C-alpha cells in the first residue's frame, strides 16, 4: 500500500494556523516567536497532535514536541518552525510542521507501527527575533547562558522577559537538548523562498546543504566637501568607492565563486548625508554566501583586495569589521540520495540544490543524518503576505516527505 497525505486536511490546517496573528489590513501574519499569539498557536498545535495519537509536551524554550510510536529506538525527527516574521506568509515554517503532523495522522489512521518512533517538532523562535534560532539551537545544545541572559529584540525587550511572559523558565532552555544518539535522522520540508525551482520548472528541490554566511560592516572614509566648489578630480568621495565596488561584485563571483555564491550590499549609510555635501564616509553591510568554505574564503579575500584597490583609487581609507562567519552545512549524502531515489520512483522532476537561507535543520547537519526538501514558491516570494505555493506542489512535497520517512524507518541504522 502506498500512503498518500490528505491534502484537504493539510490545507485546512494551514488556513487555521494562519488565523493566529493574521492582520486584515495588510493580509500579513504577525506571529513572532515568544509572543502571546505564538503561544496560542502552539496550544492549538498541541491539541491537533494529541488527537493524532501522539504524546506531546512543550520544552523549556517553547518547542512543541510530539512523539508517535512505542519503540525506544532512535527517532526520525520531522521539524520546522511555527513563528513568523512581521507581515509574513502562511507557508514559511508552518508547512513543515503540518506536514509532520500529517505523517503522524497517516501512521495512526492506518495503524502502522514503525521500528522507530517519529517525533514532530514545531521549533521556537526560528526567525531571529532575538538574533538566533533559539529552538533549534537549544535542541542541538548550541546555546549559552550568556546569550540567554543578554539577548534582546529590536524593541529592547530581553529574551529572558519574553520567555517569562510566556510562562517559561529561561534556565529550562538547557534541558531541551536532544542526545544525538537518540536521533536516527532529521528531516525538514520547507518552501524554497526563492525563484529557482519555478524558473527551472522543477517540482521539488532536494537540498544538499546550506550556504555559509559571512557579514561585514565596511567603512570607506574620505573627506566631506562642498558639492559645488570641490573639483571632480580633487575629491575623496566615499560614495564613489561604494559604487565602484558594487560594479565589481559580478566579476568577483565569476572569478572566485560558484553557482551558489552570493554577495549583497544590503544597507548603505552616507555621512554627513546632506544633498550639497560630498560624502566623507560611507558605511555599508556586505553579506557573502557559498556552500563551500574554501570558496567563501576566496571570495572574502578578493573583496578585501578589491576594496583596498578602490580605496587607493579614490584616496579613501578602508576598514571593515567581520560581524559574523557561519560555516556551510552539508547534508547527509545517504539521505540526499534516498530522497532522490524516491523522487525518481514517483516521477518527480527534481533539482539538487543548495539553500541560501538558514533553516532549523542546519544545526543538526554535523551531528545526525539530515535532509531538507523544498517545494516551489510562486514568484520566489516569501516573508510577505503574498507568499504562496500551489496546493499540488504542497501535496507532492508532503507525499515525498512521508515516503522518505517510511523508507528511512526500514534501515537498522543510517
Automatic annotation (TrEMBL):
Q: Does the keyword Kinase apply?
A: no
Q: What are the recorded GO MF terms, alphabetically?
A: hydrolase activity
Q: Which Gene3D superfamilies match?
A: 3.30.70.360, Zn peptidases
Task: List the InterPro entries.
Answer: Amidase_Cbmase, Bact_exopeptidase_dim_dom, Peptidase_M20
Keywords, sorted A to Z: Hydrolase
Q: Name one Pfam family in it.
A: Peptidase_M20
UniProt lists the family membership as follows:
Belongs to the peptidase M20 family.
Which PANTHER family does its entry note? ALLANTOATE AMIDOHYDROLASE, ALLANTOATE DEIMINASE-RELATED
Protein name per Swiss-Prot or TrEMBL = Zn-dependent hydrolase
Amino acid at each position: 500500500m502506498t500512503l498518500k497525505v490528505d491534502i484537504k486536511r493539510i490545507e485546512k490546517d494551514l488556513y487555521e494556523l494562519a488565523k493566529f496573528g493574521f492582520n486584515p489590513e495588510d493580509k500579513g501574519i504577525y506571529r513572532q516567536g515568544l509572543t502571546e499569539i505564538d503561544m496560542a498557536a502552539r496550544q492549538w498545535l498541541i491539541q491537533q497532535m494529541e488527537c493524532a495519537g501522539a504524546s506531546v509536551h512543550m520544552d523549556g524554550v517553547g518547542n512543541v514536541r510530539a512523539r508517535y510510536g512505542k519503540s525506544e529506538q532512535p527517532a526520525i525527527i520531522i521539524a520546522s518552525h511555527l513563528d513568523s516574521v512581521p507581515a509574513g506568509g502562511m507557508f514559511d515554517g508552518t508547512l513543515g510542521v503540518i506536514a509532520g503532523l500529517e505523517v503522524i495522522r497517516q501512521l495512526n489512521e492506518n495503524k502502522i507501527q514503525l521500528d522507530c518512533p517519529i517525533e514532530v517538532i514545531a521549533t521556537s523562535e526560528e526567525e531571529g527575533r532575538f538574533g538566533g534560532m533559539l529552538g533549534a539551537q537549544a535542541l542541538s545544545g548550541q546555546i549559552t547562558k550568556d546569550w540567554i541572559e543578554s539577548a534582546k529584540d529590536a524593541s529592547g525587550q530581553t529574551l529572558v522577559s519574553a520567555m517569562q511572559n510566556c510562562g517559561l523558565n529561561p534556565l529550562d532552555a538547557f534541558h531541551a537538548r536532544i542526545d544525538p544518539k537518540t536521533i536516527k535522522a532529521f528531516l525538514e520540508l520547507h518552501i524554497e523562498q526563492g525563484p529557482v525551482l519555478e524558473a527551472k520548472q522543477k517540482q521539488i528541490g532536494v537540498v544538499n546543504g546550506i550556504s555559509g554566511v559571512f557579514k561585514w560592516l565596511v567603512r570607506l572614509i574620505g573627506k566631506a566637501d562642498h558639492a559645488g566648489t570641490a573639483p571632480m578630480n580633487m575629491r575623496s568621495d566615499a560614495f564613489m568607492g561604494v559604487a565602484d565596488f558594487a560594479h565589481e561584485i559580478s566579476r568577483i563571483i565569476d572569478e572566485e565563486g560558484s553557482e551558489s555564491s552570493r554577495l549583497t550590499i544590503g544597507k548603505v549609510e552616507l555621512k554627513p548625508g546632506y544633498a550639497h555635501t560630498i560624502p566623507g564616509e560611507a558605511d555599508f553591510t556586505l553579506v557573502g554566501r557559498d556552500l563551500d568554505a574554501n570558496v567563501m574564503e576566496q571570495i572574502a579575500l578578493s573583496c578585501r583586495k578589491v576594496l583596498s584597490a578602490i580605496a587607493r583609487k579614490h584616496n579613501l581609507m578602508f576598514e571593515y569589521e567581520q560581524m559574523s562567519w557561519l560555516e556551510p552545512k552539508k547534508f547527509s549524502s545517504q539521505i540526499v540520495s534516498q530522497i532522490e531515489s524516491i523522487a525518481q520512483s514517483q516521477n518527480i522532476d527534481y533539482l539538487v540544490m543548495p539553500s541560501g537561507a538558514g533553516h532549523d535543520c542546519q544545526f543538526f547537519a554535523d551531528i545526525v543524518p539530515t535532509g531538507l526538501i523544498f517545494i516551489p514558491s510562486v514568484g520566489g516570494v516569501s516573508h510577505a503576505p503574498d507568499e504562496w505555493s500551489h496546493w499540488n506542489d504542497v501535496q507532492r512535497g508532503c507525499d515525498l516527505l512521508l515516503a522518505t520517512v517510511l523508507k528511512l524507518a526500514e534501515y537498522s541504522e543510517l
